[in-house]
User: Fold AraC-like DNA-binding protein from Rhodoferax saidenbachensis.
Amino acid sequence: MKIDFGWASVSLLPSAPYSVRDASCCCVLGLAFERQQGVHAIGADRRQDFDAWPGDLAFTLPEVEVFSESRTGGEYLTLHVAHDVPDLQVDAPLVGPRTVFHGDRQAVRLGWALRRLLHAAQPHPERIEELAAMLLGQGLSRLTLPWRGPSCYEADRKAHARVLDYIDSMLEGPLSLEELAGVAGMPLLRFLRSFSNAVGSTPHAYITERRLQRARRLLRASDAPLADIAFACGFAHQSHLGAVIKERLGLSPRQYRGLAQAVPLLAGTSVHLAI
Assistant:
């Protein structure tokens, strides 16, 4: 679904395979909800492998040609901002064609709130515009921060990559903080701080989001009982699944399933409902 409010538009892209090439006349702010891997080329012909993590906040300047391709994709929020917006002051030589900030907690919170509104049966454009402006402000504030050297995300990337893979492999069962810290090879308190800096949310919130994403896929693809889906995704019971979907998407599981199965995912497009 795309919401346009004059100075900008916001879109939610689904977790689906895609291959796109675009050179937007707008500044583009993108926020990843899921990890996705693929190949891209930013403002050049040379293609490189990429590994985008949840909580990555990317800022791309106007007229920069972007090619991106992924076999799996990942849920992604985009904000296209008209280049003549008065408050949009970007020093292109400083930020380059595209700048990525990792683990932005405020952006993640705003992104989750926008996603919930975009799933509403009757979206509220005024509130969506308000949150979009806040997300843009967060992105611009990151551009003005001084460079402080390698972040915890970069220094501990391999350790957190192991944790992300481990969580996905063990979603159906219980996961403890001590267990995850052991996978990372870190003391517990250091792991908690470092993980939040890497993905923009606490381990508990991240695990809940991954379970939600898996449940959404199962709801889209099957008519399996809700209790079975809850069990397969590591939720304590069907009511727990329902509470999380209601909190994160504003829908009941049955409402979500009906909507998801009625609207196909259109891979390779830049504007469609991500469900």
